[in-house]
Amino acid sequence: MKKYLLPLAAMLCTVACNAPKPSPAIPADKAVEAKVESVLKKMSLEEKAGQLVQLNISVLEDDTHEAIDPAKLEVIIGQYKVGSILNVMHDAAHSREETAAMIRQIQEKSMELIGIPCIYGMDMIHGASYLTEGSLFPQEINLGATFNRGYAKWMGDAMAYESRAAQVPWVFSPVMDLGRDPRWPRLWESFGEDPYLQAEMAREETLALQGADPNHIDAYHVAVSLKHFMGYGVPHTGKDRTPAYIAENDLREKYFAPFLECFRAGALTAMVNSASINGVPTHANAILLTGWVKEQLNWDGLFVTDWADIDNLFVRDHVAADKKEALALGINAGIDMIMDPYDPTCCTAIVELVKEGKISKARLDDAVRRVLRLKVRLGLFDNPVWDNEYPDYACDKFAQTSYAAAVESEVLLKNNGILPLNERAKIFVTGPNANSLRALNGGWSYRWQGSADEFAPQYNTILEALQARFLHVTYEPGVVYDETPMAWQNEDASGLSKAFAAARGADVIVACVGENSYCETPGNMDDLNLSAHQKALVRGLATLGKPIVLVLNEGRPRLIGDIEPLCAAVVDVMLPSNYGGDALASLLSGDENFSGKLPFTYSKHINALHTYDYKVSEHRETMEGSYNYDAVMDVQWPFGYGLSYTTFAYSNLQVSADSFKSSDVLRVSVDVTNTGKRTGKEAVLLYSSDLVASLIPDVKRLRGFEKIELQPGETHTVTFELPASALAFVGADGKWRLEAGDFRLSCGGLGVMVKCTETKVWETPNI
Ligand code: BGC
Question: Is 492 annotated in the active site?
Answer without folding.
Answer: no
